[in-house]
From TrEMBL:
Alphabetically ordered keywords of this record: Hydrolase, Signal
Signal peptide: 1-37
Molecular-function GO terms, alphabetical: hydrolase activity
Native source organism of the sequence: Luteimonas aestuarii
Residues in Dienelactone hydrolase domain copies: 148-296
Gene3D superfamilies assigned to the protein according to its UniProt record, in alphabetical order: alpha/beta hydrolase
InterPro entries to which the protein is assigned, alphabetical: AB_hydrolase_fold, Dienelactn_hydro, GDXG_lipolytic_enzyme
Protein name: Alpha/beta hydrolase
Amino acid sequence: MIATRFTCPALAAPLRRRYPSLLATLLLFAGVTPALAQHDAMEPIPVPSQPEAIDLRTGTLPGAATAESWHRQYERVFARNVTDATLTPFLPDPAMATGTAVIVAPGGGFRTLSMENEGWDVARALAAQGVAAFVLKYRLNQTPADMDGFAASMQAMFAQGAPRRPDPAETIAELEPQLADARAAFALVRARAEEWRVDPDRIGMLGFSAGAMLTLATTLAGEDARPAFIGNIYGPLSAVEVPADAPPLFIAIAADDGLFADSGFGLVESWRAAGRPVEFHFYEQGGHGFGMYQKPTTSTGWFDAFSRWMAMHGLMQRTADAGPVSVR
């Protein structure tokens, strides 16, 4: 699994001197603009207060020995060494509530979580359109506690080059803790659907990079999760076996994505072959990890496209106004 954010003060300067092409590649993978690249150093920050975060009660990550920590990079915040999963609601104004909900899964290679750019910022944008959003802080693989050790581990991982094409079955098998977290998130939203003004049959999932892997795993092997619709934002595009009742799928990725753009479009073809709804946006530029960053590329328009796609499926209409809406 590949994380998409890298560098620290101790290593940035040596990397620029000794590995300029590597640093450029890492910044490309991160999908950052030159202005943001000036803020590429990882700065440790205190674990923020998260009073709205709800413990999903899936247990502490087995074997975890390193406490959760956070850092700032590219003017956004990231979580690391998450050992206990939480779900944070971002609810719309009740007067605007559509009844649709989205569980948002940030990316970070299962080693870190882009909590702001691929989590909170996305959730706020959804809530502004009347969609109840829930940011899933799922459990992560452990990394060194100190920033230099973490940065060195990331450098070693990137030195292996581009990842091999992920095998969907293998990926699912490796995501047992994260899949349990996703299932618990769906169960919680359904259990409190009336309180949160959510239609239990209109709960989707939107994932970024590693979060997109988790979204697909939840769709294929999440049993009772049953997302009503899903979004894959710059995640793997490997072919999968698609169930007959697979939900509508939205995909967005940039052609210059250094991780997943050159492995074909098997996921799109699989959904089409199964006769299930799929929309695919292949942007010329954007890199990997563009998320909600405002960049001078058309990839910045992915969120508007996703919103229009939801509207096309009747998901932006209030349930009370439109009656029951099925997206299957």
